[in-house]
Amino acid sequence: MTLNELAKEVAHQFERTYGRPPLWTAAAPGRVNVIGEHTDYNNGFVLPMAIERYTVIAAAPSNKASKCIELRSSASETPARIDLGQALKPAPKGMWFNYPLGVIAGFTSQGANLEGFQALIHSTVPVGGGLSSSAALEVSTATLLEAITGRQLAPVAKALLCQKAEHDYAGMPCGIMDQFISVMGKKDHLLLLDCRSRKPELVPISDPAVALLIVNTNVKHELTGGEYAKRRAQCEQAAKILGVPSLRDADVESLERARGNMDDIAYRRARHVIGEIERTLHAAEGVRASNWPSVGRLMYASHTSLRDDYEVSCAELDISVSIAQALGLEDGVFGCRMTGGGFGGCTVALVEAKKVSTISERIAKEYEERTKIKPSLFVSRPAAGASLVNV
Ligand code: GLA
């Protein structure tokens, strides 16, 4: 289904729910990170792309003058009613509407004048799949609010407002990757983002001979749990021991020299981050040169490091990667790794486009045999970032 068809459907759903057509329809994509995992909050590099899976939000002003925002999601029975006449604060942890609520709070705290409206949200980004369903929800809300208020934010400011919503309202201390790519994604491009300077660089990937195959293990990940925050703290501790502002400023030699001063966990976390930043830069070069075997090797190395040093993989992710790896170059697989925060969610494989259906079938079959879980697989081209959609 194209974005336009999806947006049309959400507009119809809005009309069925509220009895009139929407005035605005905004959409923001999820993302898959090709490489550069757990590097964003260490000021390093990431190399994600936006995917052809979107959160769409259709909205119209309230029928009568009102300060109430009503949000409904096709994924939840519970609508949200937000009273703009009251000070905004987070709803209890785990409520789905904390993400849009945090974005609304971000706009109002910047002085935006919001009136009541009604909205309907529908998403094709799987929730808890490591494909940034939360960033897609935040960024689609921000795109809608730009249209409603006439207040256009600069792309970096928009991404940062959404990140703050996730920190303050969802309690997840995420880095900047997901919101940046959902705002700045470009068709047929990966985004090499320097998370220190926040400078994005587009890396074209339009070789029809390769495809990115996303395998959802259908093991849900839950990042608001403590493990993500723990990893961040361990990285900060390692940077402190190394005497640098962030692990971006460390290198393998300084890490080896300081090894005796740190515990094994801090050492391995730092080794992952330092290696991953380097792998990401090399992978971007590999993509530019269409050197797919080299990009693939870096993806496998990334996975091994995330599994053994960073310890954010899980059995199902490892199984998905090992099946792809066993198929190997001969059967059209260049590389594969877990993607996103980890502990479940998806793997991403770089494969020969002409072999993608055989590869998908074989991975799906063997994964199910070994885990007793049915995976979901799909291919995505790099998509454009958030926008309003004319329906
Ligand atoms: C989550 C976070 C991102 C990033 C990844 C790991 O998706 O939201 O900021 O840290 O995990 O690379």
Notes on the structure:
With 391 residues, the protein is of the alpha+beta class. It has 11 helices and 12 strands. The strands form 2 sheets. Strands 1, 2, 3, 4, 5, 6, 7 and 12 form an 8-stranded mixed beta sheet that branches. The protein has a 4-stranded antiparallel beta sheet with strand order 9-10-8-11. Helix 2 packs parallel to helix 3 (133-149) and helix 4 (155-170) packs across helix 5 (177-184). The longest helix is centred in the C-terminal third of the chain and has 25 residues, at 264-288. It is globular and about 65 Å long. The protein starts with a helix and ends with a strand. Bound molecules: alpha-D-galactopyranose. Alpha-D-galactopyranose (GLA) binds at residues 37-38, 40-41, 174-175, 177-178, 340-341.
Q: Topology, please?
A:
Layout lengths: L2 H16 L5 E12 L9 E17 L6 E6 L6 E4 L14 H12 L7 E7 L9 H17 L5 H16 L6 H8 L4 E6 L4 E6 L5 E7 L9 H17 L9 H7 L5 H25 L3 H17 L6 H13 L5 E7 L6 E7 L3 H16 L4 E4 L7 E2 L3
Parallel strand pairs: 3-5
Antiparallel strand pairs: 1-2, 1-12, 2-5, 2-6, 3-4, 6-7, 8-10, 8-11, 9-10
Helix pairs in contact: 2-3, 2-4, 3-4, 3-5, 4-5, 6-8, 8-9, 10-11
Bound molecules: alpha-D-galactopyranose.
